[in-house]
């Protein structure tokens, strides 16, 4: 398992090169850890993707030798993924590219605010071919890895519990996230 670095690739990305505003769709820690400036934010969703704890975290919630697990988006025809959209200026991408450098690429996608209101926005997705991708595993195994991982940004369990709580506040149903969060809580309750 190894870390990735997508900064150079993302900086070559010229989606919205001439735009003075871009809508960023956030579905993981970018929902609740907002360490970047934004002009406006609104709950939003994207179609045909599921949120999964299938991406390794070697730099934030784990280490190169003991990676944690964080979310990425996986294509699934019938799926819908709820989150938060932020209207940002393009300068903010320097910070975001650094924060999301372990495998995430900027992808242009339709961001929906309602069934009648959508626009083109950007999403950071860690694709299956990136070197930090861990892939599917049983929920109990994912939760156990998360319960015992931590890194420079803190405990991996906090990432999951804060995400579950932020999704609850947004009234977003996500069975995968809630199932992992429940199992992580069960592991933490057993801690001495
Ligand atoms: C996101 O939150 O949109 C990307 C994944 C993450 O940073 O957790």
Detailed description of the structure:
The chain is α+β, with helices and mostly antiparallel strands and 192 residues long. It has a single domain, classed as Roll (Hypothetical upf0131 protein ytfp). 29% of the residues lie in helices and 35% in strands. It has 6 helices and 7 strands, in the order H-E-H-E-E-H-E-E-H-E-E-H-H. It has helices at residues 7-12, 29-32, 92-99, 139-147, 156-169, 175-189; strands at residues 22-26, 40-57, 68-88, 105-114, 117-125, 150-151, 154-155. It has a 5-stranded mixed sheet. A two-stranded antiparallel ribbon has the order 6-7. 42% of the residues are buried. Bound molecules: succinic acid. Succinic acid (SIN) is lined by residues 26-30, 70-71, 100, 124. Succinic acid binds next to helix 2 and strand 3.
